[in-house]
Amino acid sequence: MIDTPGTIIVPFAALGLPARTVTLTFDDGPAGDGAVTERLLAVLAARQVQAGFCVRGSEVAHYPSIVQRLVGDGHLLVNHSFAHDLRLVMMGREAIGAEIDRGDAAIGQALAIDHYRSRFFRPPGGMVTDHLLAAVRERDMRVLPISFFAYDHLVSPAVAPRLLEYLLARIRRDDGGLLVLHDGMAPPIWMPHCIPSHFNCANRAWVPEVVNLLIERLRDDGFSVGIDGLS
Predict the structure, then answer these.
(1) 3-state secondary structure 100-169
(2) What is the pTM of this model?
(3) Could you say which of 3.20.20.370, 2.60.120.200, 3.30.460.10, 3.40.190.10 is the CATH number of the domain covering 6-225?
(4) What is the pLDDT of residues 220-229, one digit of tens each?
(5) Which of 29, 52, 100, 201 could form a disulfide with 184 if both were Cys (CB 3.0 to 4.6 A apart)?
């Protein structure tokens, strides 16, 4: 899907996915604190929707049972690096490859699978370099794109309803979408101790509720929601 340097943002019409389909992906989890990812999984199960989960290896190591449930429920597991270091964009091929391998090793340990290899990699920060493409290709992986960026990682529970309306409007305009929301929150390296509160964006508690409403309204509009188009 992505074979040139730039960003992971690719217009929906250029993704080769069927019209009127929406693929949901979730970055930076699994989030065990407050059971955000588990509540999200319950919503997806109730709606019979499979999604992509772009997981941080560092969090996978803390919540292996959630990762096992992700796979058991039929969701797509995506390597989102181990440490979610935004400086990945400045790294060379070998350093990026080591970070990818470390992420896959954490996933493999959680799933008890030796030599586990993810199908997709989504770089933290969303920047794609020649070095990153080389590291991904060496591992027979692909970079997982998005069709637009909603900046949901800047959204708090207080303004989440407005984000829902924006997502719906953009999907209707594009006649489909490959979306990213964040069930977890990787704090910036300059703010490593950001504590969730009702009024800041570190609080991801709103995500399952918004996803539930998003799926309902998309289906009412005749969209299909799932991961069937990702191959």
Answers:
(1) HHHHHHHHHHHHCCCCCCCCEECCCCCEECHHHHHHHHHCCCEECCECCCCCHHHCCHHHHHHHHHHHHH
(2) 0.94
(3) 3.20.20.370
(4) 999 999 999 8
(5) 29
